[in-house]
Specification:
This protein is mainly beta and about 325 residues long. It contains five helices and 19 strands. The strands form four sheets. Strands 3, 4, 5, 6, 7 and 8 form a six-stranded mixed β-sheet that branches. A five-stranded mixed β-barrel has the order 11-12-13-19-16. The radius of gyration is 21 Å and the shape is globular. The protein starts with 16 loop residues before the first strand and ends in an 18-residue tail after the last strand.
Length: about 325
């Protein structure tokens, strides 16, 4: 690292992002990693002070005291990128558990996959392979800070994640730099199931005992919120009144979507300010770019800003 001049550590780095593709790339320039089902966190340690930022820039340090303590114990000034994950007894990521994490009693790990800064040196221009080599040495034998391994055979790893019902894999160009906030072909993601985050824009009334019939959602395109689909499943009846109460607090008279909402089947529709983000699983895209059939909600995402949620239609394999 001698060729790198020392410089001040930046206050904030927006995480590098992945492009959605249909299949693992066959290009040998890529390495492959598991796609962890947790909260994306960029961590900064400087002069024994720790700050853990969500993808949207929120401070999550106090939420994960065990990880903050482990970061401080490294004894280095660093910036790391990774995913905070709670694992089941079978070793699978449990997204519901990370949402309910109690701070101290539940076992938690920080699955770290990139090293951006080390002891005054900006490493973001180094090739990914070199950054991961330094990262592995830094995290050796650490029980809380887990080094995210890389694999050469993307198709085999994808098949394994599919059989284990894991979220998917990520493919990364071995020579790629780390470009803050960039979404391109350096990093691509291949999920085992069709799931994405969308922005809630309204709800449809229910004629039954349920608090609501469905949520209406969309994503941003060129800075405008476009309606994409609706979700009528995945809700626990005991949780629906609280969700409805949350929606009523941000209710508004005008639709936040730039296009017309279809397929509400005559139900009365209410609109909300586009502030809430949730994760959904769905069957397929239509040719018009909407969700085919109602989606199933998997949970709300408070770590992401609504404006950062864009439509992602998978590209052909690289």
């Amino acid at each position: 690292m001698s060729k790198f001049k020392k410089s001040n550590m930046p206050d904030h780095i927006s995480p590098m992002l992945c492009t959605l593709v249909k299949k693992p790339p066959k290009n040998s320039n890529y390495l492959f990693e598991l796609k962890w089902d947790g909260y994306r966190i960029v961590s900064k340690v400087e002069s024994d002070q720790v700050r853990m930022n969500s993808r949207g820039g929120l401070d999550y340090t106090k939420r994960y005291p065990l990880i903050a303590k482990a970061l401080k114990s490294l004894g280095h000034d660093v910036i790391l990128d990774g995913e905070v994950v709670v694992f089941t007894d079978e070793g699978k990521p449990d997204f519901d558990a990370i949402q309910l994490y109690n701070g101290h009693e539940t076992s938690i790990q920080y699955c770290v996959f990139d090293l951006l800064w080390l002891d005054g040196h900006n490493l973001m221009e180094l090739p990914l392979l070199k950054r991961k080599e330094l990262l592995k040495t830094l995290l050796s034998d650490n029980e809380v800070l887990k080094f995210s391994d890389s694999y050469d055979d993307g198709e085999a790893l994808y098949q394994k994640t599919f059989e284990m019902d894991l979220e998917g894999i990520v493919a990364k160009d071995k020579e790629s730099p780390y470009i803050a906030g960039y979404r391109g072909e350096y990093w691509v993601k291949i999920p085992t199931r069709k799931r994405q985050e969308f922005v809630i824009g309204g709800w449809a009334d229910s004629e039954k005992t349920r608090s609501f019939k469905s949520l209406l959602f969309g994503a941003y395109e060129n800075g405008k919120l476009t309606w994409i689909g609706r979700s009528g499943g995945g809700y626990k009846l005991s949780e629906m009144p609280a969700i409805l109460e949350k929606l009523k607090k941000i209710e508004t008279d005008k639709s936040p979507f730039v296009n017309k909402v279809l397929d509400t089947k005559g139900a009365k529709t209410h609109w909300v300010k586009p502030q809430l983000v949730a994760n959904f699983e769905f069957a397929a895209w239509t040719k018009s770019g909407r969700i085919r059939k109602p989606a199933t909600i998997l949970g709300f995402r408070y770590d992401k800003k609504a404006k950062d949620v864009v439509r992602e239609i998978p590209k052909e394999t690289l």
